[in-house]
Amino acid sequence: MCVLFHDKLYVLHVFFCSPSSLSAERKITTSNALKLKLFNETKIFGLRAEGDRVYITEEGVTKVPASVNFTLRIFGIHFSNRTELAFTGSKSVCDKVTKIVKITNRNVLSDTVLEIIVSLPLAEEIESYYICVKKERENAEAGIWEHQGDSAWLKMEPVGRILPMWLQICIICTLLILSGLFSGLNLGLMALDRTELQVIENCGTETEKKYARVISPLRKRGNYLLCSLLLGNVLVNSSLTILLDDLTSGIIAIVGSTISIVIFGEIIPQAICSRHGLAIGAKTVYVTKLFMLATFPLSYPISKILDCVLGEEIGNVYDRERLMEFIRVTKDYNKLENEEVNIISGALELKKKTVADVMTQIDDVFMIPYDAVLDFETMSEIMKQGYSRIPVYDGDRNNVVALLNIKDLAFVDPEDNSPLKTVCEFYNHPINYVFEDETLDVMLNEFKKGRSHMAFVRHVNNEGDGDPFYEIIGVVTLEDVIEEILQSEIIDETDVLTDNRKKQRRKETQIKQDFSDFAKLGSGEQGTNIISPQLALATYQFLSTSVEPFRNIYLSETVLKRLMTQNIFFKSKQNKDGYNAPCSTLYQAGKPADYFALILEGRCRVTVCKENLVFETGPFSYFGIPAITVNTSAGWLFLSFYL
């Protein structure tokens, strides 16, 4: 505040504005109150610097960047276009006005405000700069400069850069690389847990095994590595911010440091290390060890505290469900086939499934009674079913007393009508029982012991008023367990159903021969001419495979079976006249015959040619093919069966 009283100007208070405060009040002591005797004398009462990296200290000293142009507003009285300013390093006199300060622009805003653009360089002999004004009084000596005072608010100190610009730029680039390295390693190395590294060491490629062995010692000290990387990253980013702020200031420094740290120090390194963290971590292991050593005094104690609080790191561990889902999700990337995924899933689910989930219900099991006779009909039924192991029950189907293996019938002749009981007692196969809640892994171990590949599933029936008792509810076999591992049905050439639980029939079932029809041969009008079912079966197979007119391409199996059930079997006995008797002659020279003959048992003498050559033939010799066929260019033509 200025007051003009009786041609005298008194300065009571002066107000200043700075970047940190738009207004600040500074009091002028009584000794500094100037009483101007002349009206036109120029005097400076304060100043304000404007520009980047310009600030005012707590003592009121203005700090400006060295050798950088900035705007300086000077407050005083009697400013005009003739007012000349200069700067000196002396605190009291202006006898040595420096010439290294260049004022590039000057603008008189009013008689109390003068604005200039100036640059204050660093000089060894100058610590602070003070303002000098050339006197304009008529009686004053020309060229005399007047010092404006050494008060803190009239003093300016230039501040130089921390380092030379070229060195500063090199350090900034290096710090950016280190910032990106620490940020990337923090993601890449910490994402590789100890379990994954151990897996890579055991089953990775040779290069991956080499990288994993290098990283594994560092990764075992997870918290120590984490603290070292984070401390190094914070140290580098802080240094980078300081250097960027010294290189520039204001919005440029904020935007520049943000973009450089986020893009080059975070986004790009983490994107690269998330995919190639193993290789980058192995190739920069010495840099990581160096910073672990450098930050040891601070990072190691913090890591020990984390170890005590959080416990030891054990890595990612997958349970059965997560492991199966992990395999299913990554099967396309691992080039796993669906069958391979199913087998792995089935093996992992083996402990969760019980025999009740895979067994065949007892009502669907083919069983034979204990008192059965192993005649042709019984053995034909056994062969028709196609099972290798058949349970044997006594009275009730829940009362299983024996187990019949199909190989036990290899030396049993159906004509002997052997009792089934005798065969079962002779071989005496063990019978295994399991409860319905037994898991499949236990059953697999039992089957591998070799005692039996079939077990009967039972449970405790406590319904009703009586005592609880064991009840057989189904059968489980080794094939059932293997099918659960493979997650698919094993279908052999004798299976009729593709799923014994869903009762799904096989679409393309191999045609099984029904041998029970051959047991009915000879039950017609000529009941005495009966052959054994075994011989009838052999005759059928011989005709359908070895005699051309009776093959499947000419005659269906159904028609051939029906033919064999007719009265076509004859016996011919040799009488006292020998082979020359009429009743024992099948064909005679010179007499036509319209029938086909097949020798089933015994021997036959054939006399041919004029020389009366005699031959003997035995069973399954046949005659009369031309009588039932016509040989055409298209092949055989079957005529009739009439014999």
From TrEMBL:
CDD domains membership: CBS_pair_CorC_HlyC_assoc
InterPro entries: ACDP (IPR045095), CBS_dom (IPR000644), CBS_dom_sf (IPR046342), cNMP-bd_dom (IPR000595), cNMP-bd_dom_sf (IPR018490), CNNM (IPR002550), Ion_transp-like_CBS (IPR044751)
Molecular function via GO: transmembrane transporter activity
Any single GO CC term annotated in Swiss-Prot or TrEMBL for this entry: plasma membrane
Chain ranges of the CBS domain: 359-420, 427-493
Start and end residues of each Cyclic nucleotide-binding domain: 579-632
Keywords noted in UniProt: CBS domain, Cell membrane, Ion transport, Membrane, Repeat, Transmembrane, Transmembrane helix, Transport
Compartment annotation: Cell membrane
A Pfam family: CNBH_CNNM2_C
Membrane topology: Multi-pass membrane protein
Keyword Cell membrane belongs to the record: yes
GO BP of this protein: magnesium ion homeostasis; monoatomic ion transport
Transmembrane domains' residue ranges: 165-189, 223-244, 250-268, 280-300
Residue ranges occupied by any CNNM transmembrane domain in the UniProt entry: 161-340
Superkingdom of this protein's organism: Eukaryota
Main location: membrane
SUPFAM superfamilies in the record: cAMP-binding domain-like, CBS-domain pair
Family: Belongs to the ACDP family.
Protein name: Metal transporter CNNM2
Protein encoded by which gene: Cnnm2
